[in-house]
Each structure stands twice: as structure tokens, then as C-alpha cells.
Amino acid sequence: xxxxxxxxxxxxxxxxxxxxxxxxxxxxxxxxxxxxxxxxxxxxxxxxxxxxxxxxxxxxxxxxxxxxxxxxxxxxxxxxxxxxxxxxxxxxxxxxxxxxxxxxxxxxxxxxxxxxxxxxxxxxxxxxxxxxxxxxxxxxxxxxxxxxxxxxxxxxxxxxxxxxxxxxxxxx
Length: 172
Description:
By secondary structure, the protein is mostly helical. It is built from seven helices and no strands. The longest helix is centred in the N-terminal third of the chain and has 28 residues, at 23-50. It starts with a helix and ends with a helix.
């Protein structure tokens, strides 16, 4: 029943976006649909993990991460987008394969780079504060990889966060 409701909402979002004439409203609706899809993927990943389907759960968590990254990089990114990125980074860290420096894809690196890019662009001190807190959470996860795996890529995330923290503290 719940899946049917989610499916109906998604269909309505797509119908709504195709019938609207104002691009800004369509864009907003697409973001809302992505947020709904993100939540749906999280629920499916949790269910898969609970029944022992580790690979399926990992794939779903990484798909949710990709959506979260798109939402964070959208022009309407806000505190919720930042919190969502921290949330999914934690889920991926806990439930996905251990990251190594030889991996082509490094979700913590992606999260750190996105947060750093937004920090560079941010003029609003309140949003900067949230971005820095989110970046700190991602850097804490990266630090765990440094501690246990001596990951050079994770150390770069930590170093970048420290750099941004110093800049932020000097300017505020």
C-alpha cells in the first residue's frame, strides 16, 4: 500500500512538471520528486540490509547518495540538503564496502568536494555554518578511514576541512 502511494506521488510529480509552463516551478517539482525518491531508496536499502541482502542495500544506498549529491548541488540547496548529505554519508560509511585509495569512486570524497564548493560560493553566514558542520561530519568519517586504513585520500578530505575551518574562523 505504501509503495503504491509513493508511486502515485511520483507519477503526479512527473505529470505536474510536464504540464507546468514556468521553468522555476518545474525545477522545484523535480527536486521534490528527487527528495521523494531519496527517501524511498533509503527505506528499500534498510529493508534489504535487514534481510541480509548486503549488495542490494549497498547499491541502493549509493543511488540515494547520488540523488542527495544532486540535491546538494542544486541552486536551491539549503540546510536540509546538507543534513541529507551527512545522513547518507553515514549510511554509506556504515553499510557499504570499505573504501580504499584504489577505488575509482569514493563517496566521502564526492561529499567533501561538494560541500567545499558550496562553502566557496556561500555568502550567507548561516548557510556557511551549516556547510561547515556538514563538512566536519564528513571529515570525521574520513578520519576513521585514516585511523584504520591509513587512507591518503581520506586524509586529503580531513586536511581540506581543516583548511576551510581556519578560513571560516578568521572571517567570522
